[in-house]
Amino acid sequence: MDPLLAAALDALGIADRPRPLTAHHTNAWRAGQWRIKTAESPAEAVPLHHEARALTLLREQGLYPVSGTYGRVGAGLWTAVEWRPGVTLWRWCASARRGGPGRAHHLPVLAHRAFAGLARLHAAGWHHGDIQPMNILVTPGGEIEFIDHDLAQHPDLLPLPVPYRGGMDLTTAPEIARRLLDTGPGEHVELSDAAEVYSLGASFRAAWTGRPPATDRQVGNGVGAADILEDIATGRRRTPLADARPWADPDLESLIEATMSLDPTRRAKGA
């Protein structure tokens, strides 16, 4: 067994056999009621330590229900976060699409709760850094939690270990996409409340429709990452929501359109 994983299990008093979070994870497991990550090199350990500290601070401020813990073995690091029950927004919406509009009335409620939660984070000086459908958890009680805080930013945290260059491309705000296009890989891009509002609107649109929220293209077959960012920055290939939606929902559509305005000064806050 990985010595770092073994150390984490021992420190947490876990007897259950750990299993990878997904088939693609090689350094992340679920064991008992914990999510455990490991990093062998100091460079890989820095973002894990950053997330553990972010979760501790969020818990202290009453903004997250659990905190993170960590330990070291030589130069390596393990981190652990209590497992949160629920499904990602992506999976929740995929299930709703398969079941038809019978669950439709729940989705606008979830969206308004998500925007209210984001507003609370922003009011306390936080930026999540990677708002996307897989980082939004729908709890069994229908509440919303943001997960995966390795890119979180707050004045009381140390700066990110590397320049911030956005989170998931497809939910990147147009103004962030433009900055990414206009700057080199070593330049930090400043994140704003308005940019995260866009990312949350884009996350709900992507999860609801099952399609990319701001472009009808994907990388490949002559389309590069810069082309996708240009699509996002200009809105030139954004499919009308009326053509992408699985069913009509005027409240949800209005919220998505208002929070995904290309102009951040005209973007609704959503809550």
What does it look like?
The protein has 271 residues and is α+β, with helices and mostly antiparallel strands. The protein has 2 domains: 3-82, Phosphorylase Kinase, domain 1 (2-Layer Sandwich); 87-266, Orthogonal Bundle (Transferase(Phosphotransferase), domain 1). The protein is built from 9 helices and 8 strands. The protein has helices at residues 3-12, 42-60, 89-99, 106-123, 174-182, 193-209, 225-234, 241-244, 250-259, and strands at 19-20, 28-31, 34-39, 68-73, 76-82, 87-88, 136-138, 144-146. A 5-stranded antiparallel sheet has the order 1-2-3-5-4, with helices on both faces. The chain has a 3-stranded antiparallel sheet with strand order 6-7-8. Helix 3 (89-99) packs parallel to helix 6 (193-209). The longest helix has 19 residues, at 42-60. It starts with a helix and ends in a 12-residue tail after the last helix. The relative contact order is 0.12. The model has no long low-confidence stretch (mean pLDDT 93).
